[in-house]
Design brief:
By secondary structure, the chain is mainly α. It is built from 15 helices and no strands. 54% of the residues are buried.
Length: 450
């Protein structure tokens, strides 16, 4: 556990963010290597099928990730107020909800995966591959949620280091199993999915054992757990807007993929590979945003409002520095990065992916700014307005533009819709931040600090 209400704001946030940044790097690294192995050894069709599966997976996980985020914020505020009993009850309530909801989602996901692929117009040669990969992944989704919920709890308590160790284990395990199942056993795309499932399961079990034996707050005596309706109402109030936002974003990705699918397998494969590269930079921004949310939650819970403002601007500076560095690396080595995912003779896949990376990566600073302001508002418990801003910039700006521009200038129009949507979201987020209304969304009465 870490108290974020003390010390210099920038240093405190950076030290809290670094383990999460390392963890997210490993998480995206093994996801990226998964796609590299699939693309290199199974071909562009398998690579495209894995990429097409991601938006559907996102739909499955988005709502529960929102509730995990809501739980993290509630925990951080109670922890900042030193109400340990409420922290314990929040943890129990969050776990109970996650386990029940993920079991339901598994059943629903297996029933809807093929209709979703057909609705989006996935090319016929990719459908069977995508169904194999996704059905295996969904079957083990409870393992993903179990770990994700545990990591959110630890971050709410100020512990960002422990999840990293387990993500490193998961990354190494996934890479080894990918190589074994795909190259040695020749299980095809099913082998890649099974490797991911086993990695999720292993890291979740390891985290549960570790917490049961060492952590002073989290207890795994399941018979003594209780579901606190009042606390869940707080989690629901904060987590539902975030979860709905992520869910509508996931449906937005499905809509965008339906545009991409019309351009054929090469463009789908390029979009899938470039998206994996792009996700690493996005993950760095999201880590700083999550760190700021925990920082804001604890400091508002402790009544330290001045630290919140200073923490915001220090987070922006650090996020800009990291995003700027990644922007130069990705643009400078875009061709070489694309060649990691496919054979060098797939010239069109490499060309289209490189084009995407130039256009989208050039605007990372705008994306970073938008996410940082949203992270501050979520830490204060104000998740509704960020949800509306996100949905407006996606559904009323980005998707219509992608439809219009793709018809006029091809797939390049889809790429240009991304930074235009970010710019809209950034402007609206900053304007709402300036109103100061997010300060009134606290779920507890702050303690009085002398």
């Amino acid at each position: 556990m870490k108290d974020l209400t003390q010390g210099k704001e920038g240093k405190t946030i950076l030290l809290f963010a670094l383990p999460m940044l390392l963890g997210n790097l490993f998480q995206h690294l093994y996801s990226m290597i998964d796609s590299i192995i699939v693309g290199k050894f199974l071909g562009k069709e398998a690579l495209a099928a894995v990429g097409a599966s991601f938006p559907v997976i996102f739909i499955m996980i988005a709502l529960l990730i929102g509730f995990s985020s809501g739980g993290m914020i509630v925990i951080s505020q109670y922890f900042g107020a030193k109400d340990i009993k409420k922290v314990e009850r929040t943890i129990e309530t969050l776990y109970i909800f996650i386990f029940a909801a993920s079991a339901l989602l598994t059943v629903v996901g297996l029933l809807i995966l093929e209709p979703i692929f057909r609705i989006t117009g996935l090319p016929a040669e990719l459908l069977s591959l995508a169904k194999i990969y996704l059905s295996i992944y969904i079957s083990g989704i409870i393992l993903f949620f179990g770990y994700n919920g545990t990591a959110a709890i630890l971050r709410g308590l100020g512990d960002s280091k422990t999840p990293v160790f387990f993500l490193v284990i998961a990354a190494v395990m996934n890479i080894i199993l990918d190589l074994l199942f795909v190259i040695v056993f020749k299980w095809g795309i099913a082998g890649a999915a099974i490797a991911t499932l086993i990695s999720h399961g292993g890291v979740f079990i390891a985290a549960m054992v570790y917490l049961h034996r060492t952590h002073p707050i989290i207890s795994f005596n399941f018979r003594q757990w209780s579901f606190d309706r009042e606390i869940f109402s707080h989690i629901f109030k904060i987590g539902l807007p975030t979860g709905l936002q992520q869910t509508f974003v996931a449906f937005g990705m499905i809509a965008l993929f339906s545009f991409v699918n019309t351009f054929g397998t090469d463009v789908v494969a390029a979009y899938s590979a470039a998206g994996r590269i792009d996700s690493i930079a996005a993950a760095a921004t999201m880590v700083f945003s999550q760190s700021l949310s925990t920082f804001v939650g604890q400091n508002l819970g402790a009544g330290k409002h001045d630290r919140v403002k200073r923490g915001l601007w220090m987070t922006l500076l650090m996020s800009w520095a990291v995003s700027g560095f990644l922007m130069m690396i990705i643009i400078g080595y875009r061709t070489q990065l694309m060649q990691l995912f496919t054979n060098v003779n797939e010239i069109e896949v490499i060309r289209v992916g490189s084009e995407y990376l130039i256009i989208v990566t050039s605007f990372y600073l705008i994306f970073t700014t938008m996410f940082t302001f949203n992270g501050l508002m979520r830490g204060a418990g104000d998740t509704l307005i960020p949800m509306f801003i996100s949905l407006f910039s996606l559904w009323l700006v980005r998707i219509p533009l992608a439809f219009i521009l793709s018809d006029k200038i091809g797939e390049t129009g889809i790429w240009w819709s991304v930074p235009i949507g970010w710019l809209t979201g950034m402007i609206l987020s900053y304007l709402y931040y300036r109103t100061g209304r997010w300060r009134k969304k606290m779920i507890i009465i702050p303690v009085i600090v002398e």
